[in-house]
Structure formats: structure tokens, C-alpha cells
Design a protein that fits this description.
The structure is a single chain. The protein has 9 helices and 12 strands. It is of the alpha/beta class. Strands 8-9-10-3-11-12 form a 6-stranded mixed β-sheet, with helices on both faces. Strands 2-1-4-5 form a 4-stranded antiparallel β-sheet, covered by helices on one side. A two-stranded antiparallel sheet has the order 6-7. The radius of gyration is 18 Å and the shape is globular. The relative contact order is 0.17. Bound molecules: adenosine-5'-diphosphate and magnesium ion.
């Protein structure tokens, strides 16, 4: 579903991603960890067409992200084609990013009706199912300000799912939550994973990584330092930098 081959990303002279190579198979969950500034968000943003890679190749479901290849040469992807590819990728952010002047259900139907031109009645039926799935059937008509952080994040997940994505990206989805609200969001993500969703999750919730992730990737300084089965990495990190990082957060 995702294949990165020596992906590099610079911001001017700042080299942020310095050759990321990894692969996420369909139905797999990858957790991405690493110190602040190591390039985790930038990597997710590259997958989601929010940043263009400068070198290397990044594929989502076989499509080269940001470029098209013709006769061995790369051309920037037409914005319309990029937008179409992006629709199939759901993203959930640390700060929820809900529309504050729309109710929960209005947030969920926004993209399907505006982008996919789904009839409103159909979008509402589906949105109700999704809100039910994240445990918020009774909050459909509530505005974000009246919801807890955990509830807002669950609406954000329902909103991303409303586009029927084939891949879900999570960028520290529980980092802004009070500790007692983390579990409800991780619970929804756990169910999503059990249902077979392909997910890339930036998180420092090591319990989640250990139980749910198929792969754990430790990034530092724009490179993958160590990657493998979560249980093995967590109990027996091979690299000194991984050991140092884990001892700080565990
Ligand atoms: P992480 O998510 O691992 O904390 P980020 O991907 O957010 O790391 O950032 C990696 C580095 O890239 C940081 O030094 C950050 O300041 C820099 N960076 C991120 N986005 C931009 C941008 N749009 N312009 C310039 N520098 C950026
Ligand atoms: Mg980040």
C-alpha cells in the first residue's frame, strides 16, 4: 500500500528526510516513533500529497506520489490527478481540525457531499453509521466546542472514514488529549486495525504499538534507524539511539 524508496525531502537547505525506505502492506499497521523534529510528520505529509518529495520514490497503492513517469522521466503530477489520489487517503491530526461552526455530522458529510458529490441523504445515512462506529451516535448534532477532546478526535476519525480511504494516516492522534481520554481514541483505532484498515500511525503510545502494530519504525534525524516487529524492538532495541529514545519515553 505504501512503498518508500530512499525518499528525501528538504526545506531549502534543511535536509529533513534523508533517504527513507520502508514498505507497508495492505491491511498492515505501521507505528512510527522518534524524537521531535526527526521528520515523522513530514513523511506522513509526503504520503498525503501535502509535500513533494525531492528525491527517491514514494508509491501509494502502486501510484507514484506527486509525479508521473513517462518514458523514464518524471513530471509533476497534475493537481487534479493528485487531488483524486489524495481522496483515497484519510488523515487524522493531533489537533482534530474539525470545522468549529459545523455539528459532528455536518463535519462528517462535508467531504463526501462537496468532493465526491454524494447526495446529502446518502451521506447522512453513512455518517450516522460512522458516528455509531466511533461510539458517538448520540452526538451527531453537537458542535465541536461541546465535545471532549476524545470525542472530537473520534469525529475526526469518522470524517476521514467517510471518504472510504484505502489508507489512514494518524499524526500523534492522542498527544493533545488528557490522559483519561486517550483510551477511547486508541480503542477506535484498534477496531479499525482489526477490520483490516491499512494504517500508518505516528504515536508514542507504546502499548498500542506493541499490541496493534505489525511493524515499528524508529526514525531519528530523517533516517530510519531501526524497524521491525514491535515486541522485539521494544524489548531488545539494537541501536543505541533507539535505546536512548525508548528509555526516555517508557
Ligand atoms: P516530527 O514530526 O518528527 O517532529 P517534522 O516532520 O514536523 O518532525 O519536522 C522535521 C523538521 O522539518 C523540523 O526541523 C521542522 O522544523 C522542519 N520543517 C517541517 N516542515 C517545515 C516547513 N514547511 N518548512 C521548513 N521546515 C520545516
Ligand atoms: Mg510531528
Amino acid at each position: 500500500m505504501v512503498r518508500a524508496e530512499r525518499v528525501c525531502k528538504n526545506f531549502g537547505a534543511l535536509r529533513v528526510l534523508k533517504g527513507i525506505t520502508l514498505e507497508v502492506r495492505r491491511g498492515e499497521v505501521m507505528c512510527l516513533i522518534g524524537p521531535s523534529g526527526s521528520g515523522k510528520s513530514t513523511f506522513l505529509r509526503c504520503i498525503n500529497h501535502l509535500e513533494q518529495v525531492n528525491a527517491g520514490r514514494l508509491y501509494v497503492d502502486g501510484d507514484l506520489v506527486g509525479y508521473e513517469e513517462k518514458k523514464g522521466k518524471l513530471y509533476e503530477l497534475h493537481p487534479r490527478v493528485a487531488a483524486r489520489q489524495r481522496r483515497d487517503i484519510g488523515m487524522v491530526f493531533q489537533h482534530f481540525n474539525l470545522f468549529p461552526h459545523r455539528t459532528a455530522i455536518e463535519n462528517v458529510i462535508e467531504a463526501p457531499t462537496q468532493v465526491k458529490k454524494l447526495p446529502k441523504a446518502k451521506a447522512i445515512t453513512r455518517a450516522k453509521e460512522l458516528l455509531d462506529r466511533v461510539g458517538l451516535a448520540d452526538k451527531a448534532d453537537t458542535y465541536p466546542a461541546q465535545l471532549s477532546g476524545g470525542q472530537q478526535q473520534r469525529v475526526a476519525i469518522a470524517r476521514a472514514l467517510a471518504m472510504d480511504p484505502k489508507l489512514m494516516l494518524f499524526d500523534e492522534p492522542t498527544s493533545a488529549l488528557d490522559p483519561e481520554l486517550v483510551g477511547e481514541v486508541l480503542g477506535v483505532m484498534r477496531e479499525l486495525a482489526a477490520d483490516g484498515m491499512t494504517m500508518v500511525v505516528v504515536t508514542h503510545e507504546m502499548g498500542f504499538a506493541r499490541e496493534v502494530a505489525d511493524q515499528l519504525v524508529f526514525m531519528d534525524g530523517g533516517v530510519v534507524v531501526e524497524a521491525g516487529v514491535p515486541r522485539e524492538i521494544l524489548s531488545n532495541p539494537q541501536h543505541e539511539r533507539t535505546q536512548a529514545f525508548l528509555s526516555r519515553i517508557l
